[in-house]
Amino acid sequence: MNPVxxxxxxxxxxxxxFVSGGDLCNELQISRSAVxxxxxxxxxxxxxxxxxxxxxxxLESLTGSPVAEEVAPLLATESFGRNFIYxxxxxxxxxxxxxxxxxxxxxxxxxxxDSQTEGxxxxxRAWVSPAGVNxxxxxxxxxxxxxxxxxxxxxxAAAAIHEAVTQECPGLAxxxxxxxxxxxxxxxxxxxLCEMESEPDCTHFVVVGFGxxxxxxxxxxxLRKIATSIAIETGLxxxxxxxxxxxxxxxxxxxRDWLEKENLAFILPYLEAHSWLKGRELKIEQFNTVLTGTExxxxxxxxxxxxxxxxxxxxxxxxxxxxxxxxxxxxxx
Length: 333
Fold this sequence. Notes:
Layout: H1 3-15, H2 21-28, H3 32-44, E1 48-52, E2 56-61, H4 68-71, E3 84-90, H5 93-102, E4 110-116, E5 135-141, H6 153-168, E6 174-177, E7 181-184, E8 187-199, E9 202-212, H7 230-234, H8 240-260, H9 268-273, E10 281-285, E11 290-298, E12 304-307, E13 313-316, E14 320-323
Parallel strand pairs: 3-4
Antiparallel strand pairs: 1-2, 4-5, 5-9, 6-7, 7-8, 8-9, 10-11, 10-14, 11-12, 12-13
Helix pairs in contact: 1-3, 2-3, 6-8
Family: Belongs to the biotin--protein ligase family.
Keywords: ATP-binding, Biotin, DNA-binding, Ligase, Nucleotide-binding, Repressor, Transcription, Transcription regulation
Binding site for biotin: 92-94, 116, 120-122, 188
């Protein structure tokens, strides 16, 4: 968005009532015709703006798009989202965030796109990323911790996203699926991808990316058995800007808490209370093996605890968890 257009939007959004064209001319040192051109640009972008002779301009509604001008007023963060990069379309927000991190981007830098052409999740799986409906966001972190602790971060992010989404959508029955998904109705609502550049005793940076299906309806036919959205589950269309701000606010809080702790013990009760896998019979697919057993909780390091049929308790550090057919019934909140 043009900087002057963005300033006019912020002025209208912050005032709540009418703002005279003369005031905007004086504040921005532009002509009335120039002000009008920016108003027209905002209307074309979807903003409902009333223009009344003798009163000026009044913003009637926002678009809910995850642009800085709509997200920033809702932030209660110190760093998350304060450096905000928004793009209409990009190959991948994680790729852009990693490039920005290598160039020195500060902690909390956020890269958001309206659509992605090469969105991806774990195992390089494609993440369908159409425009105008979902959230695609990546956050640059610079945690002063050894790299061995970084695998805990996706669960911190999952707790933050789950809490933010369920608070904004009280009727949504959502669960956290170890290690990096939010599930509702047995289908994926959100995926999290965490990448880092580090040395054994030093983490240079971490990028936490997530794709959250918000107003996508319908889901592409080939994905309907495995993916869903807030709109499909609740019948509501949500403001993506409001949801993003809620996620960033909660994620920064939990991330700061995590930095002060030695592990994930402080959020284990939340993770386990909202676990999709809790107490269920599973198979865990790893690169060269498949493990089966009953979910028995999480370790303070975020490892999945699996009780095998012979009574052994395994600590699983990574893998793809699947419910066995015996317990495929939906889980209620």
